[in-house]
Every structure is written in C-alpha cells, then in structure tokens.
Amino acid sequence: MDDKLDCLIVGGGPAGLTAAIYLARFRRRFVLFDAGASRADWIPLSHNHAGFPDGIAGPELRRRMRAQAERYGADMRPGDVSRLERTGDGFRATVGGTAHEARFVLLATGVIDEEPKLPNLYDAVRRGLIRHCPVCDAYEVIDRKVAVIGHGTGGLGEAAFLRDYTADLTLLTLGAPMDPDLDDYRRMAEKGLKLVEQPVAEVIIEQDRIARLRLADGTMLSFDTIYSALGCAPRNDLARALGARLDEDGRLLVDDHQESSVRGCFAAGDIVRGLNQISVAMGQAAVAATSIHNRLREIEDDRRAGGGGL
Predict the structure, then answer these.
(1) Which of 13, 22, 112, 288 could make a disulfide contact with 258, Cβ separation 3.0–4.6 Å?
(2) What is the pTM of this model?
(3) What is the rounded CA–CA span in Å between residue 250 and residue 262?
(4) Of 157, 24, 11, 156, which is closest to residue 95 (Cα–Cα)?
C-alpha cells in the first residue's frame, strides 16, 4: 500500500465518531476532521438513547465516544474540509490549505436546523425548552402545554405527531398565514389545535421553563415546551462537489453498504435520507466503516496477487 490514508471521515458527531471507533479497531489509517458544529451538542438530555436510562447530554455522549476512539489510536483533528475532490484512485480533501489524500471518504456532515428567529434561542434550547425532535422527547411533554413553531404541512405534521402525547397544542406561525382550507389543518383544528399567526416579539424564561411569549400585538402566552418544525438543511456542499446523487430534500442517496453514487464515497447520519436519530446514525456508520474495511481488504488481496487497485 502507498502513503495514502485508508479513509477520511468528515464530521465529528455520533456518526463520524462511531466510524472512527470501528476503523481504529480495524487498524486502519484514517483521519477524522471535526468542524465543531455537531447537532448533538445542542441536546440538553436525551432519554431515548439505549443504555442511558437516566438520560445523557449530547456533549457528554460525544466526549465519551471521542475517548473510546482515542483509546484505539484514532487520529481526530479539528478542521473544516473546505474542498473535496475525486482523484484517480481516491479522494483529496483540503483542510486549512493542506491537502490530505485517502482511498475512501465517509461523509458524516449532518444537517443544520432552521432555527426560529427568537431571542434567547440557544439558552432556551440548552434548557430543553425549545426542542427539535418529538421522536426523541415527546414522551417528556405528556399532558403539558406545548406550542409548535411552523406553518403548512411541516408544522401541522409535527403537531399531529405530538397530539398522541398532549391535547393542549398551539401552532405558532410567527406571522406566516395558514391556509384554512388545508385538509390537515381542518383535521387538527377539529382535534383542538389552536392557531396563532401573530409574530413573537419576546421570549421570557422564568424558573427553567418558557413562562411567557409576548406577541407583536402585546398578547402574552405561556407554554411548557415549544417545538420548532421549520425543517433543516443538509450540509451537502462536499457531496454536491463530488456529483453524488441527492434526494429532493438534499440528502445523500446510499446503497445497503452506505455507499453513495460516487464509488468510494460513503455517508452516515443525518446527511443520509432517513430518520434523524443518534442510534440510526451510529448503525449507519458501523455499516459504512465495515464496508470500507472489507473493500480495503479486497484491494490488499488484489495487490498481493499482482492485481489492480480501487
């Protein structure tokens, strides 16, 4: 084998770190580049991640995963991959003006949540008062007073999901008009969904709960939890530059081995079409890392036999 790395991992969230653990234990030469923007760092406490019955914070989970990967010698560095291109027998990534080459690449770049334009946003998310994932934590809002920020089918879909947990639901459109003729809206209105189309002027946090929202017209509302249903944007710039196939939402399309339409480029986590869950990301990363390891074994066997490469 020449001096190329076996793999480049782009992204240091749960998917990238799982791949790092696997590849390190496979005794592969790789580098993980972490731009420090993992969505997991916004999770105050997750109760649906298996193995942590008392819950675990996103930053703490990442810390433990990094420590586990480092135990096996994983090379993980801070850095933002600004360019990724295909070479004759692999890939070249540019990080801070330096090029790194590898036979395979694993994209674990995730997504960026479309955040509501509200004051005190990060503090409210950190306290678990503004949430993004009812699949993760709707259980914690059973019979609570909940608002959903959104409009159209996206906001209504999240409200419908939450309806199984609480009947006290309000849809906040932040000034965007709601089409009253939407079938989904009529169905939810019949189930008691309240609609507020006024913009929110102020968020007042009291005693670790969202106590009051002041609307543009001065009206005050109070909720226990607010869900943002404004969607998310995949971090797919590197995949687009490679010419990888994407779905209509901009997520990477992959096969059963997590390989994209660009041979040698694998992907795992929220960047891939599917359920945005840590457990799903970790499973996809395990499949991708194992597939990369097995492909490298094939290359090594071919070279020993005098064959070709990638």
Answers:
(1) 288
(2) 0.91
(3) 15
(4) 11
